[in-house]
Amino acid sequence: MKLSRRFFLKSSAMSAAMAAAQRGANAQEASTPGLAAPGSMSRTTGDVLWNKAPCRFCGTGCHVQVGVRDDRVVAIAGDQAAEVNKGLLCVKGYHVGMILYGEDRLTTPMLRRDGELVPITWDEALDVIADRVEVDPTGFAMYGSGQWTIPEGYAAQKFMKGGLSNNHIDPNARLCMASAVTGFLATYGVDEPAGVYDDLDACDTVITWGNNPAEMHPILFSRFIDRRSSGEQVDLIDIGTRRTRTSDHATHVLQFRPNTDLAICNGIANLLIQNNTYDADFVENHCAFKQDSDPRGLHGEAITFDQYKAALAEYTPERVEEISGVPAADIRMLGDLFGNPDKRIVSLWCMGANQHTEGTALNTLLHGIHLLSGHFGRPGDAPTSLTGQPSACGTAREVGTLAHALPGGRVVMNEAHRQHAEEYWNVEAGRVQATPGYHTVRMWEQFCTPTSEGGDIHTIWVQVTNPGQTLPNLGRLFDGKAGLDDKFLIVSDVYPTATTALADLVLPAAMWVEKNGVFGNSERRTQQWFKMVEPPGDARDDCWMTLAAARRLYERGFEGMRDKDGEFLFRIDDENGNEVPYWNWANYYDTNVDEALFEEYRLFTRLKHKDLAPYQEYVRAHGLRWPVVETEDGRWRETRWRFSEFDDPYVEEGKEFQFYHSPTHDDRAQLWFRPHAEPPESPDDEYPYWLSTGRVLEHWHSGTMTMRVTQLRNAMPSAYVEMNPEDAADLGLQNGDMVEVASRRGAIELPVWLDGRGTPPRGSLFVPFFDERLLINRVTLHDFDPFSKQPDYKKCAVNVRPLPRQQATE
Amino acid sequence: MSAVEGKERAVQILLVGIITASGIGFLVGTSPADPDMAVPTHVSVHEDSNRQSPHRAAPSYNQQREIVPASANAEWTSDLSALREGIPALGSGDGPSEQEQLAAYAERLQNRAYDGAPPTIPHPIQSQGAPECLACHGEGLAVDSRIAQQPSHPFLTSCTQCHVEGTARFGGRPSEGVLAHTQNLGGDNLFGGHTWPRLGDRAWEGAPPTIPHPTWMRQECNSCHGPTGRNGLRTPHTDRASCTQCHAPGAVLDQRPLPFGAP
Predict the structure, then answer these.
(1) What is the pTM for the complete model shown?
(2) Least C-beta-crowded within 10 Å: which of A130, A332, A763, B106?
(3) Judging by DSSP bridges, how do beta strands A405-406 and A410-411 pair with one another?
(4) Under a CB-based contact definition with an 8 Å cutoff, are residues A275 and A335 in contact?
(5) 3-class SS shares of chain B: helix, strand, coil, % to 5
(6) What ipTM was estimated for this complex?
(7) CA A19, CA A589: separation in Å to the nearest integer?
(8) Contact across the interface for A735 and B172, Cβ inside 8 Å
(9) Which positions in chain A touch B191 (Cβ < 8 Å)?
(10) Residue pLDDT, tens place only, A512-565
(11) How far is CA A291 from CA A362, A671, B241, in A?
(12) Does B157 contact A245 at a Cβ distance shorter than 8 Å?
């Protein structure tokens, strides 16, 4: 079966949608008012054509209406038909259209010659890429992100694992939600949340765990906070390590010492058992117990309820207070809350729990307290792990662009899983390698290590991310590349960044509505959009770059880019069975490459019940939450509450709840015991402060886009260090003074901001990472979680040294 | 009056004084163009004379009382009725002139990326929390030429998730060091924002104009058109409270989901 050829453009709906896309790309043609085409989501007001797209920024996945006139985005509106955001956006969303129009967009491919980046043609650029692959395909790596669209990530995945037989592909999502994934796998045996955002409409209490949604997921925050303005009572319990904007709306603010969150979870679980307020029926019927094995493994070893109970016993409220600093009375308050079956509780967490050297353990405990108390699987009762990137779920996790993964929840270590991929890709058995590639930290370590010293990654192709700013411990993991002449860095991006600064080949990329795309958000919602404006200059789609490089390799006789019938690995045929030469840029939009790749990828989504609908269903919808199953009348139905019989079509009748991918194969979720553990580095005499890093409302990721939006840059123009005012007073520091923040790894100079966005407790600092001129990741450490390999950006030990004013202004 | 009551009373008077003084400071000194303006913020008391610090220790509140007695300053008059000057009486007037309308419209666009973008905040804010926004904006406030508009979408309570400062100040005391680090990245943004037509359609001369802009999230017409709206956008008939009984919104403008296509 030649599956790669099956994707014809034959439906009339497809043609209509393509026509709409074409109109979108040429707004001046669209002068008819009203809906542009049946099934498409576009309409006009005056001379502005509006069309739907998911926002380019965080993992919330809001839909925006994009207003286009004369091939330019001129306005943005919150999409009222979108269930995620119901017509509202945050300040980044309202200004998302401006990210296309920074003055310094990259518009031509550039190659470094004699230290200078000089313009070259795309044709030359493709040859450079092919040359680098041919140096040694096994030392060629790809580094992407949760900002890859699903088709882009799928193309990169197939290019590397199918084309180069090489598993060295990893996304920046490794730095962002890898521990969430391992937490889901260790608990449910399958990735991604059981609940949905609807839980925020139904809950009585929201608990934020090291999470500041008022700034980082504003739409989800306002979704429950604004319920208060209609008279509902919604309690918010903010459990964190510093006061934030979220704290100001909270009913309770509990501050814990960094890294002691595991003890708090254990304290809650212990109280549930001691008070006999856990949900005995739920646990009896749907749960099993686990603890770490020796050596530690993702699935640990089974224990009995009595062992679980005994292990928890030492975590009395008083003991938890001793460890965490949270008063015993507050631990009891949490125990009583979870012990109350009448309350509906949503837990929210994101980087605070994931960027943690015990991130996997903490994720399993957060699921665990919800499972133990039965606050699970009913509307309003959900342990909800949030993501930070628009397609961290859709691409990094579902397409599986990770060093060990294959699409649809598969892993390269599993022979059957490799066979599925080889079958769907129509390549010979053995093409997909069984050994996982290098995870992010290891990949960059190997790249920055001289070849003579065993650094066996010679080239990395970076797409849609900025590792020169976002990797931890940059001095070791990124800057080390400088001076290594045989190492080659290829970067596809839209603006000059800290990463392009060291790049040998820079490829100008189209972004967001300059291309077709599909994203998958934090609630399993897959969302499609069409290209609406042309990219500037010679900028082109990332997906085209990957496929054109594959084609160039094919033309140069590279065997890996042929399927087992000798055809191009990424062949797409038109309705007459003729191959579409889409690798020529002029022909790229002759067909919908996204649709062809998506339909092929869909084949992978059934195994783990992450079923996706046909591409055309997403054209008509504001996203659909998987599993999306076809009903008897031929329509496609999304699933909101996974594993719950009342909504999930894959739960067998009468089961009420069924964890049908249980790691123990008995439909049970795993309740873990995880002891409190010390962090790899704690403050001491030499480095007496905790440092935490993170985001701010206005800026997203490394600020590459948002720092070019006037309104966002003006509101938050530079990084800063947030200190406790009493610590500042001890050092004679006032607002705006400059200090040096130094760790064992590096130092940067920053202005002090007291009582700004947040207030850390004494002995703690916070620095946002968005500012490429003030790279806090020169200071952070790269110790990582043993299961997920995700580094801890949230705690390391630093010192603060006041700088005299004259020096700071030089 | 007992001693305790007397003490409480003194504290209350002091508090009233402080709030009044900060209110005046806020209202008279919030021009975003003034980079030297200081905003009340956390001031650390620093009294260890042995430590070498380039900074003058801030006086405590008690010391401040001695330096600046907590009483009305020379500019302050307590003529509350004067606050209503400039607000037209109910039912009076012919509405703003075209010139006033144009000026208001231009001013309105100054702190918006496009018509429909959330306006940036033209004054410094406390960076944590939201509730203090409503102290002035809750019911709307107009003092002389300065206005604090009512929220046009009062059901949304996390104000700062959409409205950010037009000019950041790091709590109000930008130092040389901060300024050295805040030069713009990447030059200008070349975005050109869309604006809606200024005037609504009238079916005939004298007919009530239709609403020329989307009304989604602008449910509170008074925000712009009420007594505390900008001069030039204010309605000449503030006594009429049911705006949409005469002024029709537009389904297309509002981007309402339309199952049967455009009307």
Answers:
(1) 0.86
(2) B106
(3) antiparallel
(4) yes
(5) 30, 5, 65
(6) 0.83
(7) 11
(8) yes
(9) 73, 97-98, 100-101
(10) 999 999 999 999 999 999 999 999 999 999 999 999 999 999 999 999 999 999
(11) 13, 8, 65
(12) no
